[in-house]
Amino acid sequence: MSSILHNVAPSFISVSYIEQAEEMRKSLQEYGATFTVSEEQTEDAFLVLLPQLIEQFPLYFKKCGSESAVESAFFSLVSMIQLLSQVEQIEDMSKSLSNAIAADETNRFPLKGRLLGHQLNCYHTSLASSYTLLTNVLKLVKLSGQVRYFNLDITQISDWLAQWKSDVGEQRDLLRLLHEAFTALGNGEKAIKALVHLLKLYGENEGVEAKADAHICVISHIAQPNIFIMDHLLDLHPIKALDGQLIHELLQIFVSGDLNDYLEFYSANTDFVEHLSVSHEQNKRKLRLLTLASICEGADEIEFSKLADRLNLEKDEIEPFIIEAIGSGLVKGKINEPEGRFTVSTSINRCFGQSQWSVIKDRLELWQKNLQVVRESLNKGGHLMMPIGS
Questions:
Q1: Less crowded by CB within 10 Å, the N or C end of the chain?
Q2: For the whole model, what pTM was predicted?
Q3: Region 246-261: what's the mean pLDDT?
């Protein structure tokens, strides 16, 4: 059944699979393994011996110092597994090998990660057993904070989950593990994306079940320095289940409130904020940036004195702060230092609601009118007369 595998290099090319199994049995016996099968070199004996070889494989991590020897034994097992007659047998044995590697307690993380990554890459992802292989890869990433020989891509993994016809529980478990793996890798933005994917799997009557995940999701968004738009979280059922709690009130401030709202919240709930995994100073910085974005929305020009008052900054701190906001992508514009003004070109919309859709609708209608004028003018062969509008 090698057709279900990508290219895999067997270890003992010059010997039969039965001889490979016997070679591995002897090797593992030297490391202290015991086997409950005769040393008969027959196909029936091989089928009994193979799962025992898989079970004893972790001894290589404990007893064998040569990584190349461990890899050789691993690929030998993979080559033996692919010779089984039924796809179901291949999948079951592959999961057993992956589970045995993942369960090993030695700290040889790079080697184990390499083997698990190779194994996952070996098999066509259409196989449902790939769910177990991927789960074990993520568990090791979570433990080691390392990932090699495998690309963790949320979109690709979501496609695989659909392909494997994973049930909702399996999808939730994997996405939660993916969030933890990205967190261990220090990739906060991807960890948050995985968590949002997870929360979307909870329906209206299930939100309460995911309140712990929802709490983590809110804190992660607040703590991530380059994430500013959070209004989409309010539509998630697990987030709605937090309504009435301080964490939900804090989220609403980051969605649509300003710096003064946050300072009042902090003054009334200091102990709560101090026990979160975000700092008060980081929160103030982000709320200052978000407050500036709100002030700039719909404005053409703003005086430094007004900004100093709203942002709780000294006048000489305004210019570098605006530069920071421009660098963050929140606003665009021109600083007029001599006159103490900031001319606004564009600013982000912190909340995308009906008013924002209305603006888009008006612009699309204007573009449609412009195109109609162009068409009519071209048909008449005359000069173009364009409507004026923004």
A1: C
A2: 0.78
A3: 96
Confidence of residue 306 (pLDDT cuts 50, 70, 90): very high
Task: Please provide residue 96's backbone torsions phi and psi, each rounded to the nearest 5 degrees.
Answer: -65, -40
In this model, does residue 385 exceed pLDDT 70?
A: no
pLDDT score of 254: 97
Instruction: Pick the closest to residue 291 from 257, 320, 321, 316 (CA basis).
Output: 257
Q: Which of 305, 303, 266, 308 is nearest to 284 (CA)?
A: 266
Q: Other C-beta atoms within 10 Å of 209: how many?
A: 15
User: Looking at the DSSP assignment, which residues form a beta bridge with residue 132?
Assistant: none
Residue 77 has pLDDT above 70, yes or no: yes
List the strands of the sheet with 331-336, edge to edge: 301-303, 341-347, 331-336
**Burial of 337: CB neighbours in 10 Å, binned 0-12, 13-18, 19+:** exposed
The Cα 57–Cα 20 span in angstroms is 14
| pLDDT surpassing 70 at residue 3 | no
